[in-house]
UniProtKB/TrEMBL annotation:
InterPro entries: Aminoacid_DH-like_N_sf, Malic_N_dom, Malic_N_dom_sf, Malic_NAD-bd, Malic_OxRdtase, NAD(P)-bd_dom_sf. Its EC number is 1.1.1.38. The active site is at Y100 (proton donor), K171 (proton acceptor). The lineage of its organism: Bacteria, Pseudomonadati, Pseudomonadota, Alphaproteobacteria, Sphingomonadales. Divalent metal cations. Prefers magnesium or manganese. It is an enzyme of class 1 (oxidoreductase). Keywords: Metal-binding, NAD, Oxidoreductase. The gene is maeA. This is Oxaloacetate-decarboxylating malate dehydrogenase. It comes from Qipengyuania pelagi. Belongs to the malic enzymes family. A divalent metal cation binds at E242, D243, D266.
Length: 551
């Protein structure tokens, strides 16, 4: 290691201070300041991490808008990552809505406004042919988890182009906070294949590739080059697809799920979270799912994924696939999905009502609307994954309440401005009888409502995959993850479906264990000598300051 220069302001000292993973800010001790030549580069005060946390949270609380708080947190992450994670761990429930949904949505929309420092990888289409070369040049040899988006369907906010990078950054922050993945071993990636968002293309601040989206064979070839570069550079890394537009999300998952450890969080993570919520709500409502109908409103990537996992659960309880399918009613923009009538995608075809039922459902060649479907099917569960604000209006909720003592209502679309209903409205219109879960954090009259969000699932899936060394991520892992989450009874009384987000780290450990056991049972993963629990605990990176000169 190079010695600091005599005046104490050496280039190594500057390098340490500008490396977010080694910087301690005012917490460098006198001894470290002497040894590393930091005197003069830092103010006089020597703080503890505890003192830094108290100061940072006070400063954060003084900002008036969530977006300002988000920008402050991103700055902290880019300057002192250890402190960022210590702050997040101490104040998780308060900070989660800032680093993740809903504020991360606004952060993606306004990404170019606050772009300051490099984080993650922007692989733009003009770099095609050079992707492996770019990955190979990175110093990060031990990447364990990659989160990638092309920014085309950011939450319910549509095409945000390069601004979509906010999502992989946010998701991987939660991998570290909840699942204890070392931040140096995470890699956020934005595949910048252009944007069809005209406002962004016209915006002089936009930092992405100013070009309409590349599609078809050229897009496929670019993604293929990316996946092969990842496999070559980081052969064991888990690749999580995030916020791709529906058709690409389904196609890419189908193409790559057997070639590397990979999953699509919008399809599979959401499905597991929703199934967990339904299983927990089933217990609260005192019903048996196999006797009751379920309506899924919005049959895109998330809705179809949820329907498939519910079908799997019903089949595992003894129903035939046909009988299980009779329980599912998927409604999209043209009403109840009926085979050969209004089905658009292959995923929809798998969950549509069979064409033999068409005559029974169609009125003057029209498929029934949401409310007509509810009146006919009398479902116990209503799930929203349509991104249609206030689609669950008063008549819809009243119809659900007429047919159930405890209707289960899950408006899952994010952010809140895309939610099918607010928790407060559902509570009012159901006279307090509904069991509710919402995609973004929300409150009803009895306090916080369960946030049915895949943050409950993906950190545990990823940790389990990394620890078990699973070469593929299977549907059984998501089904077991859902059962595991549903079995974790919340501390609070009332209608909460999951423990609060304060417990996300313990939840990630429990789900990781379930995933490791599936990997052992189905994929032949060999448990380490001390058992899976020890391996999971031992893998956890903790936000404590380390010697900044160690690698
Ligand atoms: P998607 O675009 O694949 O699917 C949306 C579906 O809604 C499409 O099939 C579309 O045709 C349908 N739709 C649009 N307008 C409609 C209308 N008026 N009536 C009925 N259906 C309509 O998107 P996706 O990935 O499935 O995500 C959908 C929503 O779910 C987003 O808002 C997203 O934020 C949310 N989501 C929530 C979570 C969570 O954890 N809570 C996870 C993933 C996705």
């Amino acid at each position: 290691m190079k010695q600091p220069r005599q005046n104490g302001i050496g280039s190594d000292a500057k390098a340490i201070l500008s490396d977010p993973l080694r910087n301690k800010g005012t917490a460098f001790t006198e001894e470290e300041r002497d040894r590393l030549g930091l005197h003069g580069l830092l103010p006089n005060h020597v703080s503890t991490m505890d003192g830094q946390i108290k100061r940072r949270i006070a400063v954060l609380r003084a900002f008036s808008t969530p977006f300002e708080k988000y920008a402050f947190l991103r700055d902290l992450q880019d300057t002192n990552e250890t402190l960022f994670y210590a702050l997040l761990a101490r104040h998780r429930s308060e900070l989660l809505p800032l680093v993740y949904t809903p504020t991360v949505g606004e952060a993606c929309v306004r990404f170019s406004e606050i772009y300051r420092r490099a984080r993650g990888l922007f692989l733009s289409y003009p770099l095609k042919g050079r992707l492996f070369e770019i990955l190979a040049a990175l110093p990060n040899d031990d990447v364990e988890v990659i989160c990638v988006t092309d920014g085309e369907r950011i939450l319910g906010l549509g095409d945000q182009g390069a601004g979509g990078m906010g999502i992989p950054i946010g998701k991987l922050s939660l991998y570290t906070d909840c699942a204890g993945i070392d931040p140096a071993r995470t890699m956020p990636i934005l595949l910048d294949t252009g944007t069809d968002n005209e406002e962004l293309l016209d915006n002089p601040l936009y930092v992405g590739w100013r070009h309409h989206r590349v599609r078809g064979a050229e897009y496929d070839a670019f993604v293929e080059e990316f996946v092969e570069a990842v496999r070559k550079r980081w052969p064991r890394a888990l690749l999580q697809w995030e916020d791709f537009a529906g058709p690409n999300a389904v196609t890419l998952l189908g193409r790559y799920r057997c070639r590397l450890p990979t999953f699509n969080d919008d399809i599979q993570g959401t499905a597991a979270t929703a199934l967990a919520a339904i299983l927990a709500a089933e217990r609260l409502a005192g019903i048996d799912l196999i006797e009751r109908n379920i309506v899924v409103f919005g049959a895109g990537a998330a809705g179809c994924g949820i329907a498939e996992l519910i079908l799997g659960e019903l089949v595992s309880r003894g129903l035939t696939r046909e009988a299980a399918l009779a329980r599912i009613h998927a409604v999209d923009r043209d009403g109840l999905l009926i085979e050969h009538v209004n089905v658009v995608t292959a995923s929809q075809a798998r969950i549509a009502r069979p064409h033999t039922e068409a005559d029974a459902w169609l009125t003057q060649q029209q498929a029934p609307s949401l409310i007509e479907t509810i009146e006919r099917a009398r479902p116990a569960v209503l799930i929203g994954t349509s991104g249609q604000f206030e689609a669950f209006d008063k008549p819809v909720i009243e119809a659900m309440t007429r047919h159930n003592d405890r209707p289960i209502i899950l408006p899952l679309s994010n952010p809140a401005i895309r939610a099918e209903a607010s928790a407060a409205d559902v509570q009012t219109w159901s006279n307090g009888r509904a069991i509710i879960g919402t995609g973004s954090p929300s409150h009803g009259s009895n306090g916080a409502v369960t946030q049915v969000n895949n943050v409950y699932i993906f950190p545990g899936i990823g940790l389990g995959a990394v620890v078990s060394g699973a070469e593929t991520i299977t549907e059984a892992m998501f089904a077991e993850a859902a059962k595991c989450l549903a079995s974790l009874v919340p501390d609070e009384d009332g209608d909460r479906l999951f423990p609060s987000t304060d417990h996300l780290a313990e939840i990630a450990d429990s789900i990781a264990l379930a995933v490791c056991r599936v990997a052992e049972r189905d994929l032949g993963a060999i448990p380490p000598a001390g058992g899976w629990e020890d391996a999971i605990a031992g893998h956890r990176w903790a936000p404590v300051y380390r010697d900044p000169v160690s690698p």
